[in-house]
Amino acid sequence: MRTFFILVFLSILGIAVAMGTVYYNDMEKSGNNVALPSIELPYKSFIAGTGIVEAGSKNIVINSNVAGVIKKVFVQSGDTIHKGELLFTLDDSIKKSKIAVLNAAIQSALAKLQSAKHQLNIIKKMKKLSANMVTNEKYTKLTDNYNEAKDNLALAKQKLKALQNELKLYKVYTPIDGIVLRSNLTVGSYFGTHSKALILGSNKLNIKVNINEFDSWKFQKNADATAFIRGNPKQKVKLSYLYTIPMVTPKMNLTGSPTEQTDTRVLQVVYSVKNRPKFPLYVGEMLDVFIENSKGK
Q1: Angle, to 10 degrees, between the axis of helix 136-168 and the axis of helix 93-129?
Q2: C-alpha to C-alpha distance for 94 and 113, rounded to whole angstroms
Q3: For 60-91+170-201, CATH number?
Q4: DSSP collapsed to 3 states, 182-242
């Protein structure tokens, strides 16, 4: 009997030690966590929404009218670009070889034209001396030969001009002043006409704010709006209203909150950043946005 009580006592003691160890470890872990600073609400009454940083020009996916292997790349992600600047070139060796062949054909056509013109001039001189020296059939044939040679030369020159214009398409230039948002271009890789390997955007930034449809009736376009950086609410930017997209749509940008409903519908409002802050803002970054509610409801 005594042995039984000893075993019971040891079991209880073991359980107590185990529970104490688990509790102590949890306390230690919680002590290592750094509490995130809370947002100092900018307005007494407000509409809260999720904002997404966008380029003022929207994302511009660079395409090409021709497909081919990338020959040279002149930009990378994050580069500042200016309108008309060369972005990359495609392999144009085949097109250049066709131009070389056509140049040779033009020289041949030019020689035939000069020969036909020379023969026609001789016949014309003979005809002036005596109309009986040259038959009408002979004169007509040489005239036709000259006109045909002239047309062949003109056609070859037109083909050359077309090829030279096509050759320009193998160089791709930037259409705007801005920044390279993303570049997956690599020398030797294939670039299709609908490739999404290069995306540009303007330096101006906008914030697209998603407002829950249940709060959309409170929204006023002239109300003040402020966006806060996630993880550091001390960093904030004042927003200026641009326009409202007059269409309530399913929410596409999820915040990851455990209480977030995936079937939410939102009204989208676009703001511009009043003054570019000293801290960085990145296209695609998610912000917490507060819009003043003057209705106070």
Answers
A1: 160
A2: 29
A3: 2.40.50.100
A4: EECCCCCCEECCCCCCEEEECCCEEEEEEEECCCHHHCCCCCCEEEEECCEEEEEEEEEEE
210, 49 contact by CB (below 8 A): yes
The CATH code belonging to domain 93-168 is 1.10.287
**Are 234 and 37 a contacting pair, CB within 8 Å?**
yes
pLDDT for res 28: 45
C-alpha–C-alpha distance, residues 282 and 179, integer Å: 11
Q: What is the mean pLDDT of each run of 10 residues along the chain (297 residues)?
A: 55 60 53 58 91 94 94 96 97 95 94 90 79 78 90 94 95 96 96 94 94 92 93 92 93 57 82 90 94 77
For residue 47, count other CB atoms closer than 10 A to its CB.
23
Query: Distance between CA atoms of 4 and 33, rounded to whole angstroms?
Result: 45
Q: Regarding the domain with residue range 46-56+204-292, which homologous superfamily does it belong to in the CATH classification? A: Efflux pump adaptor protein, beta barrel domain (2.40.30.170)
Structure tokens at 95: 């097109």
| Burial of residue 60, with CB atoms counted within 10 A of its CB: 0-12 exposed, 13-18 middle, 19 or more buried | middle
In 3D space, the residue among 170, 169, 152, 168 whose CA is nearest the CA of residue 102 turns out to be 152
Q: Who contacts 215 (Cβ-Cβ below 8 Å, separation ≥6)? A: 47, 48, 49
